[in-house]
Specification:
By secondary structure, the chain is α+β, with helices and mostly antiparallel strands. It has six domains: about 1-40 and about 165-190, Phenylalanyl-tRNA Synthetase, Chain B, domain 1 (2-Layer Sandwich), CATH 3.30.56; about 50-160, Nucleic acid-binding proteins (OB fold (Dihydrolipoamide Acetyltransferase, E2P), Beta Barrel); about 215-410, Phenylalanyl-trna Synthetase, Chain B, domain 3 (Phenylalanyl-tRNA Synthetase, Chain B, domain 3, 3-Layer(bba) Sandwich), CATH 3.50.40.10; about 415-485, Phenylalanyl-tRNA Synthetase, Chain B, domain 1 (2-Layer Sandwich); about 500-590 and about 625-730, Bira Bifunctional Protein, Domain 2 (BirA Bifunctional Protein, domain 2, 2-Layer Sandwich); about 745-835, Alpha-Beta Plaits. Helices cover about 25% and strands about 25% of the residues. α6 packs antiparallel against α9.
């Protein structure tokens, strides 16, 4: 919301010394996010005056049309003689009033004006356009033509209100009242302790039987509808300069008088309005839900197919507007430039259900200034005042006549009341505010407060976000100043601390970071099309997702069942921006739906939930195991003066799984596998054994080329993902520190020939079991394949076996015996034979 300081001062009598920066600091202290203060005309220097075009001479012989003009600027040039100016624009004529900048002036951007010779003439100044003066978009894109009543020689800086400061406020979703000058003025008045001149306090006539007929068929969707009629508008009437400038400063483009007035009142009071050309409305104006397959052409010229939940404004023909979002083209106000402009209008000021408007705007991808306000909450009591303000301005500026008829359709409703202990804000903040301060602050935001120790608070109509006791406490705290809250460190109870699950999560993250991976947390939202891109089977359990009722992004409406989509997206973005050597990891929750979905349990906020209430809530939540995943691409080891580098490969991904398992103290079985996005011949399967039952907990390896192409990933990208919770159950929860012996190690190397399809893990397991207790470590250090030397379908696996006793130095015979036992068992189980 853009708020001009000059407009704000109309409703709050700020001291003249207060600048936009001062107001920004006050509003930020009160809890509003004022992002910037834009100084308008800060580098603008006159003379900039109103002039009248006396003569225009068309200069020929140039590539573009050029005009040599004489302009009467009164005594502004010191001589009273006509000012000679060369201009290339053509949207003005002799007799028009224009804005003239004279030599010695400076335009926005530091552009100095002086007399200069051009196109064979000397130009003593410029005739200005809105762009050159930094006025924003006025829709004309040419020379500013002022109304005939503008006084020749008058200072145009003052006339066009070119010097101002504009506060740009990022309004949060709960503060719809601050999407108006009125709402921001109220906050400013509170911050400065000054009275507010409320622009909504108008004398409004009551409803009568002579107003335009209105029929509301859905009072839940529209609980208030006010209609007023103004006739006899002058089709030639234009928005005055002050009105156009204020709209430009808040970021809106002037269109026509009737439309500009409704936009002006919306910005002023926060109540969206709509003006219908009365001659184009046929019969009664109605409010109802759309029928299936109904269509409407909105003001942007787009034909839209309506949904049964859309709230629409209708006449006897059908829909003439999307309620609270955008009007229809069939009742559009005619522009003043058209031959037959609009002379009679019907003004609509209504209050619509916030959720309904938000869903309609999102469904049609049609966000408007009106929908932004309705979906955040609009003051229902302001509708009549906004309609009256619009009528008054149209009568004043367009010479219209306000008809006596006033239509108001209102669904009965009682004001929202909250009972709150007077010391509740004290308990929330840990500060002794006292009853008087609490009552004073609540009254400042518009609440009516009754009672002593127990307060009965009636919430103002413009604050629909105040729903319960803590909302009122927050109002007191923010107005008293968040900076005045004491800093108190919490006292942890003895015996409390991180759970085993949390400790494992942190250990795994530290271990992967130490191994050269960079943590890349991602949003937990995905679109279901990613499962096809990952090549998952149609019946894969990972395709069963938990869908959000109100997703942040319609393209990602589900919660993730895997960490890979987010990580691979991060890898793709970084690779596309020039970082090609990547090793990323993430630890986080994935979400798996329960077989039977139950209704959510609402926990109390005034006390600690009981164990039963927490258990009931957990029973309806999705299953949320914690996973760890890594992705790699590019070089794993950089090349340099020390030697050649090494690209990341499937073995690195497998090793990342081993790192995680080591931190969990779990024995991880690694064997060949095949799953979803991984290359069938370069995929490892992670298995843990719990009580003799083997469970697959993850996969690692190189991704399939089809997956790389579908996701736009670099060639040979590798990945790993495993279930940390399953690892925790399989492990003892504590990583084992290496034992240090004072006795020397005995190393024995063996090379075994096996069939090519025999997994290394099976051979290693047999060697480990056959070697017995003396085996300290085993390492595969070579794999060799040569059909001529080894035979068809054979490979050689070379292992280094380390033997050590805890109580003595091993003899050669003991080490050899252990080695032979290991080889014998490997031969028995896998068919391995010693390589000659």
């Amino acid at each position: 919301m853009r708020v001009p300081l000059s407009w704000l001062r109309e409703y709050v009598d700020l001291p003249e010394t207060q600048t936009g920066r001062d107001v920004q600091a006050k509003l930020i202290s009160a809890g509003l996010e004022v992002e910037t203060v834009e100084p308008l005309g800060a580098d603008l220097k006159g003379p900039l005056v109103v002039g009248r075009v006396l003569t225009i001479e068309e200069l020929e012989g140039f590539k573009k049309p050029i005009r040599f003009c004489t302009v009467d600027v009164g005594q502004a040039n010191g001589t009273g003689e006509p000012q000679e100016i060369v201009c290339g624009a053509r949207n003005f004529a002799v007799g028009d009033k224009v804005v003239v900048v004279l030599p010695g002036a400076t335009l926005p951007g530091g552009f100095s004006i002086s007399a200069r010779k051009t196109y064979g003439k000397t130009s003593h100044g410029m005739i200005c356009s809105s762009d050159e003066l930094g006025m924003g978009d006025d829709g004309a894109h040419g020379i500013i033509v002022l109304p005939p009543e503008a006084e020749i020689g008058k200072d145009a800086i003052e006339l066009l209100e070119l010097v101002d400061e504009v506060l740009d406020i990022a309004v949060t979703a709960n503060r719809g009242d601050c999407l108006s000058i009125r709402g921001v003025a109220r906050e400013t008045a509170i911050a400065y302790g000054l009275p507010l001149s409320d622009p909504a306090l108008l004398d409004v006539p009551g409803p009568n039987a002579f107003g335009y007929p209105v029929q509301v068929s859905d009072p839940a969707g529209c609980d208030r509808f006010t209609a007023r009629t103004v006739t006899g508008l002058s089709p030639e009437a234009r928005s005055p300069i002050w009105l156009q400038r204020r709209l430009q400063k808040v970021g809106m483009r002037p269109i026509s008088l009737a439309v500009d007035v409704t936009n002006y009142v919306m910005m002023e009071l926060g109540q969206p309005l709509h003006a219908y050309d009365r001659s184009l409305v046929q019969g009664t104006i109605g409010v109802r839900r759309a029928a299936e397959d109904e269509k409407i052409v909105t003001l942007d010229g787009v034909e839209r197919k309506l949904h049964a939940e859309d709230l629409v404004i209708t006449d006897d023909r059908g829909p003439i507007g999307l309620a609270g979002v955008m009007g229809g083209a069939n009742t559009e106000i005619a522009d003043h430039t058209e031959s037959e402009g609009t002379t009679d209008v019907v003004i609509e000021a209504a209050h619509f259900d916030a959720v309904s408007i938000a869903r309609t705007a999102r469904r049609h991808k049609l966000s408007s200034e009106a929908s932004r306000r309705f979906e955040r909450g609009v003051d229902p009591q302001a509708a009549a005042a906004a309609a009256q303000r619009t009528v008054d301005l149209l009568v004043l500026l367009a010479g219209g006549t306000a008809e006596a008829g006033v239509t108001e359709v209102i669904a009965p409703s009682a004001p929202h009341t909250i009972t709150v202990p007077a010391d509740h804000p004290d308990k929330v903040a840990g500060v002794d505010y006292g009853r008087e301060t609490v009552v004073r602050r609540l009254q400042q935001v518009g609440c009516d407060v009754y009672g002593q120790d127990e307060l009965l608070v009636t919430v103002p109509s413009w604050r629909p976000d105040l729903l319960e006791q803590n909302d009122l406490a927050e109002e007191v705290i923010r107005l008293e100043g968040y900076e005045n809250l004491p800093s108190t460190l919490p006292r942890p109870l003895s015996g409390r601390g991180l759970t085993h699950r949390q400790r494992l999560h942190r250990r795994v993250g530290r271990a992967l970071a130490g191994a050269g991976y960079v943590e890349a947390p991602n949003h937990p939202f995905i679109g279901e099309q990613v499962f096809d891109q990952l090549g998952l089977d149609a019946d894969d359990p990972a395709r069963r997702v938990v869908k959000l009722v109100n997703p942040l992004n319609d393209e990602e409406p589900a919660l993730r069942t895997s960490l890979l989509p987010g990580l691979l997206g991060a890898l793709r973005r970084n690779d596309g921006r020039g970082s090609h050597d990547l090793a990323l990891f993430e630890t986080g929750l994935v979400f798996q739906p329960r077989e039977e979905q139950q209704a959510a349990v609402h926990l109390p906020v005034d006390r600690r939930p009981t164990d039963e209430e927490i258990a009931a809530l957990n029973a309806v939540l999705p299953v949320q195991p914690r996973h760890v995943a890594v992705v790699l691409a590019g070089a794993r080891e950089q090349a340099g003066w020390w030697g050649a580098g090494r690209p990341a490969g499937w073995a690195d991904a497998v090793q990342a799984g081993r790192v995680a398992a080591r931190e969990a103290g779990a024995e991880l079985i690694v064997r060949g596998g095949q799953y979803g996005p991984w290359h069938p011949g370069r995929c490892a399967e992670f298995v843990v054994a719990v009580d003799g039952t083997e469970t697959v907990v993850g996969h690692a390896g190189e991704l399939h080329p089809r997956v790389l192409k579908a996701l736009g990933l670099p060639a040979r990208t590798c990945a790993m993902e495993l279930d940390l919770d399953a690892l925790e159950q399989a492990g003892d929860g504590t990583p084992q520190a290496p034992s240090i012996s004072t006795f020397p190690v005995a190393t024995q190397d063996v090379a075994l020939v096996v069939d090519k399809f025999v997994p290394h893990a099976d051979v290693e397991a047999a060697l480990r079991e056959g070697a017995g207790e003396l085996l300290e470590a085993i390492r595969l250090f070579d794999v060799y394949e040569n059909d001529e030397q080894l035979g068809d379908g054979k490979k050689s696996l070379a292992y280094a076996l380390r033997f050590r006793a805890v109580d003595r130095t091993l003899t050669v015979d003991e080490a050899s015996a252990a080695r032979d036992a290991a080889v014998a068992l490997a031969g028995e189980r896998t068919g391995a034979v010693l390589r000659g």
